[in-house]
Write a structure and sequence with these properties.
heterodimer; A: about 300 residues; mainly alpha; two-stranded antiparallel ribbon; B: about 475 residues; alpha/beta; Rossmann fold; six-stranded mixed β-sheet; globular
Chain lengths: ~300, ~475
């Protein structure tokens, strides 16, 4: 079990990570920056899957809506970055609600299918209105978060730290407990007096908010918004693998998995096409033999 | 005294099946009502309707005078109803105390931290159900009875006016039963209304102030345990009017052994479902295993078919089945018709039968089909219909016919009469008798309906709490074992 010592040690780890720019190259900092944003995607996803028990096959729908909302506002109306990012998060919640309210009425695998179809629709929509959205090529953004690697790294780390503490804290709170009960046994949770739909919807909104915010932050780091980096199915798959690899129902494991996945992808880049295969194989073996993920194996010795 | 729970005209239909029909019952504060009925009679549905897990089609449910029928279950819970499920599914990563605290939390998205009194109250409840020595353990490490206590603790956490308990004593040992009885009796002392749901009078007689019997979704009678046991309809439902039997005149004295089960035990987690059971079935013999729901019939059959892990020996036609998979055993000739029927609902009757005869040569499959349609003429007229649109009785016949298409050497029938009306039972009974008289098939039948199980049987076993308590020919059953079945 995670005890109250977790919070101080987490803050300690974050402080250590904050010292990295004084010692490592800009290349590694850039990699970690990307890893931290992906970490927020994965943690948001784990809140929905690990706690509310709903499998969202389309995390990149929520990420993409946030990113493109922010991107379009910046490109066409030159809104300041902070306003674009907040609008992106808000729009993610709205789009998420439009999707989740009808979808949560469905049982079994249908919720997952709806989320998958939503990604494809968003992708088609962006390509269809290429005149406005930039289509496959994407949009250049006039503004970027920062120009030097160190500042970009610190912004990403701070964002991940704050998001992670909120998501983790939520999962350990009274609300998280109810959410877990709703995910595991909706009938029993209802009989204990909990409105299961309300709690799942709330989880979906929180997941959407952080996915959207992180998607918007990411594009201002990269200076461009494109389908390939924030909407494509492959982006979503990577988020899911990261969360499961790191350890579902742990929130923190998802962050670990995301950084690992981004790092591995880069380390194996010399292998060319084969690198994707190797990363996928590692993910597959982990999921099959250590279903609890890295953190699950570490904390519980869990076998399921 | 006011009625804390008042149910009138309650009706629930699932498709064409009427599960509960115009049901009525009342419970006062400080009263325990036992609701009994055989498997499939609709008593669990009544409980789910009160809790709001299922929505009634018609009728009224009043909690302390307030109408709640049709509300979602979380609202009904807040109006003052608590339920103790038969199977507990606690949160496994949280301690016992946290599991109890969960039940005390408000249904709020904003309250991130439990209020101060919650901790204290959770300890109080734990003490009350005697979990205080294990509050910091994880549920997975607890024995079965303690898991039931945890379930009880969560149900009473909100101090509900009405407490529903599903099969309060299932899987408990005698001292645990006494302990739980005291706990439930203490709810009565505090003025709660308690509904106990169980299969037979015996299970709840000691604790209940009043007993209500139902069958096929309908109210039969209510009164004291003695009154209910004396009721004609109740006797007929549980015992049958007169227990008949018809031994085959040509039955040989000694048969070659086909199936031998020796010292088989099965555990589900911590609950022992089968305790050192031995049985044998001869070639061409028709053996019935009778026992109430939960006695272990299905578990026994699943152990034979290797659908659940078991210890002991199962031998078929002289060969030990140890290490064989369920698929290998089925191909070897043991075909089981499960209680849940497991038909392919979206396929037609004919397609279901064809699938059963899939491995036979075309010519043989055809002949077998003809023979089966003669045995169950109703299936001929329904051949093109989807299996799910059949009535319960027709579905049961199709299940048996499909199993027979597989040319079983041993046919296992698990509660074929579940939820069927008496008139259907007669048809099914006739078909089985024809089967028995005209073929040399070997059948192992599991039943709680004694009237149905006895007439066809060459030999009868009585299963109780996972053990055989009686074995003998059907003509001795009524005098030697019949009394157990009320």
């Amino acid at each position: 079990m995670l005890k109250s010592k977790t919070f101080p040690s987490l803050v300690g780890i974050l402080l250590l990570l904050a010292l990295l720019p004084f010692g490592v190259s800009g290349y590694i900092l850039g990699l970690l920056t990307l890893g931290y944003y992906t970490a927020v995607f994965a943690m948001s996803w784990d809140l929905l899957f690990g706690f509310a028990g709903e499998v969202n096959f389309g995390p990149s729908f929520l990420i993409g809506v946030g990113a493109y909302t922010a991107g379009l506002l910046n490109h066409y109306y030159t809104w300041p970055i902070w306003a674009c990012v907040i609008s992106g998060g808000a729009m993610s919640i709205i789009a998420g609600l439009l999707l989740a309210v009808p979808a949560l009425r469905l049982k079994g695998p249908y919720f997952g299918l709806v989320t998958l179809v939503a990604v494809l629709m968003l992708q088609n929509f962006i390509v269809l209105f290429a005149g406005i959205t930039g289509g496959e090529i994407g949009l250049d953004l006039p503004d970027v978060l920062a120009v030097d690697d160190g500042s970009n790294y610190w912004i990403a780390l701070a964002f991940m730290g704050v998001s992670g503490l909120i998501l983790f804290g939520l999962s350990r709170s009274a609300v998280g407990l109810i959410l877990q009960a709703s995910g595991q046994d909706a009938v029993q949770a209802g009989a204990l007096g909990f409105n299961v739909t309300k709690h799942k919807l709330a989880a979906f909104c929180i997941s959407a908010l952080f996915s959207g915010l992180s998607g918007a932050m990411l594009i201002f780091y990269e200076g461009t918004v494109s389908v390939g980096t924030v909407v494509d199915i492959a982006v979503g798959v990577q988020v899911i693998i990261a969360a499961v690899l790191g350890g579902r129902r742990t929130i923190l494991g998802a962050a670990l998995g995301a950084v690992f996945l981004i790092g591995m992808g880069e380390m194996l880049r010399p292998l060319g096409e084969a690198s994707t295969f190797v990363v996928s194989a590692i993910a597959l073996v982990t999921i099959m033999f250590v279903p609890g993920g890295f953190l699950g194996a570490l904390l519980h010795g869990e076998k399921r | 005294m006011t009625n804390l729970l008042e149910v009138t005209g309650l009706t629930k239909r699932f498709g064409g099946l009427v599960a509960v029909k115009d049901m009525h019952l009342t419970i006062q504060g400080g009263e325990i009502l036992g609701l009994i009925g055989p498997n499939g009679s609709g008593k669990s549905t009544v409980m789910k309707l009160i809790m709001g897990i299922e929505r009634p089609n018609a009728g009224s449910v009043k909690i302390d005078g307030e109408e709640v029928a049709g509300l979602p279950s979380h609202q009904i819970a807040r109006k003052g109803v608590g339920i103790v499920f038969q199977h507990s599914r606690p949160l496994h990563r949280q301690t016992v105390l946290e599991n109890i605290k969960l039940a005390l939390l408000p249904d709020s998205l904003l309250q991130l931290f439990a209020a101060a009194h919650v901790e204290e109250r959770a300890h109080e409840i734990a003490r009350r159900v005697r979990l205080d020595h294990v509050v910091n353990r994880l549920p997975g490490t607890l024995p079965f009875a303690d898991l039931r206590r945890l379930e009880l603790a969560r149900a009473i956490a909100r101090n509900p006016k009405v407490v529903l308990v599903d099969e309060p004593f299932a899987g408990l040992t005698a001292p645990e039963v006494a302990d739980f009885s005291n706990l439930i009796a203490s709810f009565r002392e505090e003025g709660h209304a308690v509904l106990l749901v169980d299969h037979n009078v015996k299970g709840v007689a000691n604790l209940s102030d009043r007993i209500l019997a139902m069958y096929l979704g309908e109210f039969i009678t209510q009164g004291s345990a003695e009154d209910v046991m004396r009721n004609e309809t109740v006797r007929r439902v549980y015992l049958g009017g007169a227990i008949g039997h018809a031994a085959r005149p040509e039955a040989p004295e000694v048969r070659d052994e086909l199936l031998r089960v020796e010292n088989v035990s099965v555990f589900y987690g911590k609950a022992q479902a089968l305790d050192d059971v031995s049985l044998h079935v001869g070639k061409g013999e028709f053996v019935s295993v009778v026992g109430l729901n939960g006695a272990g019939k299905t578990t026994l059959f699943n152990a034979i078919s290797a659908l659940v892990p078991s210890t002991g020996v199962v031998a078929f036609d002289g060969a030990d089945l140890d290490g064989k998979t369920a698929g290998q055993i089925a191909r070897g000739g043991i075909v089981q018709c499960p209680e849940s029927r497991e038909l392919f609902g979206e396929m037609s009757v004919r397609e279901n039968l064809d699938l059963g005869g899939h491995h036979l040569p075309t010519e043989e499959a055809h002949q077998r089909l003809e023979w089966l349609l003669d045995l169950f003429p109703i299936l001929k007229t329904r051949a093109g219909q989807d299996a799910r649109t059949l009535s319960g009785g027709e579905q049961q016949m199709l299940t048996i016919a499909r199993a027979l298409m597989m040319k079983p050497r041993l046919l296992i029938l698990d509660e074929p009469t579940l939820g069927l009306a008496p008139v259907i039972l007669e048809q099914l009974s006739k078909a089985l008798e024809t089967l028995r008289q005209t073929t040399d098939i070997t059948v192992l039948l599991g039943e709680q309906n004694v009237t149905f199980a006895l007439p066809h049987a060459d030999r009868v076993y009585v299963l109780e709490h996972g053990r055989f308590v009686w074995e003998g020919p059907p003509d001795r059953f009524a005098t030697e074992a019949g009394a157990q079945f009320l």
